[in-house]
Specification:
The protein is of the alpha/beta class and 194 residues long. 43% of the residues lie in helices and 15% in strands. The protein has one domain.
């Protein structure tokens, strides 16, 4: 397990020591300046040595069964990546505004890109070492790294499977600010034009 502390202002060293004491194989990577989800994921993936690489969000919002099912699908099919697709229960956990944005993004993804899934922002993905270099070639430092990775997989005609995933009970999802939304729309345009 590799945990990347993407420049959090909170003191997380005590928590990191506790995790390392419980899971001796865990690796803790920390740096002072927040660089964004994409940068953090590339940093973690670069350190991976296993045949299968899986990443998820910091709050581990998906069930353990969802993660296991993705690994099983990756091992049992001739595929280099398995991407999560959130079931309808996800939309009950977010604000109406975020739900509209998410549904709009799915429609745009269907029209503009030939991606394996229209649910690009599901924060649970798994891939083999074969796709590692492709993942590391992404440039997006922020939230939309998932879109860029899926676009690169589609360009390579890579075999990608989609797996339905479920949220854990009582999970609280983060809110998205207007400023962050504007920044991500700019990033989305850059990916679209690349």
């Amino acid at each position: 397990m590799i945990i990347v502390n993407d420049g959090s202002s909170a003191n997380l060293e005590e928590g990191a020591a506790h995790i390392k004491a419980e899971i001796t194989e865990a690796e803790w990577i920390s740096y002072k300046t927040n660089r964004g989800k994409g940068f953090a994921l590339r940093t973690g993936v670069e350190s991976c040595e296993g045949h299968i690489i899986m990443y998820t969000d910091y709050d581990f919002p998906y069930t353990y069964g969802s993660m296991v099912n993705m690994i099983h699908k990756l091992e049992s099919t001739n595929t280099i990546a398995v991407v999560g697709k959130r079931d309808d229960s996800y939309y009950a956990h977010i604000s109406p505004r975020r739900r509209r944005i998410s549904q709009y993004l799915k429609k745009v993804n269907r029209v503009l890109f030939r991606l394996p899934t229209d649910d690009t922002q599901c924060g649970l993905k798994a891939f083999t070492n074969e796709a590692k270099e492709l993942f590391l070639s992404t440039k997006t430092d922020r939230y939309l790294i998932d879109v860029e990775f899926l676009k690169l997989l589609a360009k390579k005609n890579a075999k990608v499977e989609v797996q339905m995933v479920k949220l854990r009970d009582n999970v609280i999802l983060s809110k998205i600010t207007n400023m962050r939304l504007v920044m991500e729309m700019i990033n989305y345009m850059k990916i679209m034009l690349s």
